[in-house]
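forwarding from the other thread:

> can someone predict this with xanthosine-5'-monophosphate?

sure thing
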Amino acid sequence: MVYDRRPDDMVRITTPELANAFIDEQVQAVKEQVGDKKVLLALSGGVDSSVVAALLIKAIGDQLTCVHVNHGLLRKGEPEQVIEVFQNQMNANLVYVDATDRFLDKLAGVDDPEQKRMIIGNEFIEVFAEEARKLEGVEFLAQGTIWPDILESEDGIKAHHNAGGLPEDLNFELVEPVKILFKDEVRMVGDALGLPENMVYRQPFPGPGLGVRCPGAITRDRLEAVRESDAILREEFEKAGLAGKVWQYFTVVPDFRSTGVKDGKRAFEWMCIIRAVNTKDAMTAEIEHVPFDLMQKLVDRITHEVPGINRVLYDMTPKPTGTIEYE
Ligand code: XMP
């Protein structure tokens, strides 16, 4: 059955059995809703859209086309994982669009955070709409809307990420199979669908991606420094057993240089700031007490392996007064 709202008496999905029952029910519902028509999905590689993709592949196979737009602001290895999991392992119809140059060219010289967000959001819709127009006979748009999105948009807290962004000529009917689920339930369902653990249990990642962790006007070299330092941080947190424990952790490379010394020579380079926070609802956050020896390892690796970085700092600021992200 296609639900409009979460039934008041719905049991929280906390076991593989409940997840499988939900999957069976929604596979049937999607088949009934869609018939033999085609469905389009913007697949970011985040938990919600990935679970929707896996569910729809199970329900309607190649009637689904997934579009993965790489805006150049994804973390290291993310586009590759989307291709590996969905195209190679699940045999999905996947359109991969490397739009890195389009996004970075539009963002060049733009230093206002909200303008950066707007450019990234608008360009995303434009690229996705272009791909949608190339496909014939699509009548449905699948979205990873979840129950908190609906509640928050009803409360006026935020316009939920999906609502009505596409141009009018793309008038699709929506397919939202995880719309009545809470996040932990989406993860249970993702697990039951066989998605990789690091996809299902990954930390939150903002839509504008690494763009907001490269404060000020984004340049390709500084963006690479953010991406490489983030990859080292994630690798070391994983090795130290912190990956599933710390709520969100990432690096930021501000547009500011300081004097340092590398190989006996003056090195006038950027600093990398590490952020690691715990929270329940992201409205407030406390910093993680990262062990000192892990910090030393991170400083050593980031300053030696990431071009352009000569210092590493740890941000000890809770929210408030800091926000979690820097922009
Ligand atoms: P702040 O920085 O406001 O972040 O303390 C709270 C949570 O929201 C995420 N965040 C975003 N997510 N688009 C998103 O999809 C955005 O523009 C955005 N800004 C912040 C942030 O990563 C944190 O989890």
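The mean pLDDT is 96. thats all i got for now
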